[in-house]
Amino acid sequence: MKITLADQYGMARNRHGIMERTYDGEVEFEIRSAKTHAVLEVIRCHNIIKVFAKEIFAHCIPSQEVWDPNFNGGTGDWVDSGLNLGQYSPKYIIFGASYDVNGLPLDTADTRFYIYDDVSQSYVPRALDVGATFNGGLINPIPIAEPVRPLKRIERIYFEPSYQPAGVPLLQSDVRAINNVLVLETTLQQDEYNGFGLTAYDYFTITEVGLVGAPQIGLVGNCGVDPHSLFVNGNAGIGLECSTSGTATITLTAANPLNMINMIQEGDQIMIVAHGGTITANTLGQVSPYYLVISKVNGGSDIVLDRTPVDFNNVPLTGNIAVFQDQFRLFSHRIMVSPIKKSADFEITCRWRILID
Question: Does some domain include residue 142?
Fold first, then answer.
């Protein structure tokens, strides 16, 4: 059977010869010589994009307003949605690396990322699960280093075709190209992400990559911090005061400033820590301190979460807690099949391909 470009972009033939989807996305790293710009290696990994993210990407120019049938005395009108849609669009491709407490690369010896497979006699990526990223971000993000930050803006956006059956899928002439592959691209320049500067031969071993939607920020004036922390909001660095009674509904207390009551909106992600705490405070033994807000009335104090906050022993949290709004939206996350070394000798282009149905 003749092979087409379909295999590259998520289309493959099943045992009946019919074209069908096999995956939702692909991460590609193109490694080039910093001196000659010649392509030295291309590494591709299949990946999955969250459904809500694909919906956002597919409607990237939506209206800020929504239709309210009860407005104007019941005649209806377009009213402001109250959502900052720019925060929900993909803006960054962020990177994590494998290194020890001294900043030295670990490569596949890093058990946070890789396990040894006795069958293939090689190191393979660990499966990502709920507890893989305790902080709601990457496993080991490259820390902030101003002015060369691990917050690479998406520098180029374009479309490529995928190949889909147009009639009888067994015939090559009936396969057509459709421009529904969204490509988000950024390039790590020669002087970016080359390690902690411990030696002249220092480098980062990139082991993971994430596609992130978050607000646009300028210089942050911080070094050595998780980039995720730049997008977690509270009241002057302290979480909003809240109480919980062991259910999925938590309640903002009257101690919060009035201008903070509406900071958290329906659809937000929040972070729960100990009462009076900062983002580095005790997370009360939760598997993950991050939750999705599924209901929040404007001006109201009750926040309905996607699940009841519990600790490692599945005991519901009760009493006073602190809540942060989290604007860091990790649309997709991938551990690389093999680590990618970055140094002053290489330029690396990262492309995120997403199939838009």
Answer: yes
